[in-house]
Amino acid sequence: MVPTFFEPFARDLIQLSNLEQTSGSILDVACGTGILSYLVADSHNIIVRRVVVGIHVNPSMLRMARHSYSRKSIEWIEGSAISLPFPDDESFILVMCQQGLQFFPVGFRH
Questions:
Q1: What are the extents of the domains in the chain?
Q2: Dist CA 25 CA 59 (whole Å)
Q3: Can you list the alpha helix ranges (DSSP code H) found in the chain?
Q4: What is the 3-state secondary structure (H, E, C) of 81-100?
Q5: Taking the complete model, does pTM exceed 0.90, yes or no?
């Protein structure tokens, strides 16, 4: 049900993000079951090198993402958007969040 409901929104977000020529690391915050991460990983051409990282606080959602999209080169990480588990020298060319913002604490959304 989740991919069926959220896939059209994910495709719109990808189109708005102009990813065709984007290479580098892309972070999907609050990735849930992984539909946006999957579509981002799937949207590149062979000339563009792209790394997709999906992060989510709920291990059950990540298990579903890993199971559903195991054939894609996506790095799945359990962690919180409030305290991202990345070193200071790690960077992403794009950070996306499709449907997670409404679940963040009120003060964090501002």
A1: 2-81+89-98
A2: 22
A3: 2-17, 35-42, 59-68
A4: CCCCCCCCCCCCCEEECCCC
A5: no
At 50 the three-state DSSP class reads strand
CATH number of 2-81+89-98: 3.40.50.150
55-64 pLDDT, tens digit each: 999 999 999 9
Block residue for tokens 């913002």: 101
- Determine the Cα–Cα distance for residues 83 and 49; give it in Å rounded to an integer: 27
pLDDT, tens only, 33-66: 999 999 888 876 555 567 899 999 999 999 999 9
Q: Token pair for residue 14?
A: 């990808």
Q: Of 27, 44, 30, which is closest to residue 2 (Cα–Cα)? A: 30
Q: Let me know how long the chain is.
A: 110
Rounded Cα distance, 75 and 5, in Å: 23
Contact 57, 79 (CB under 8 A): yes
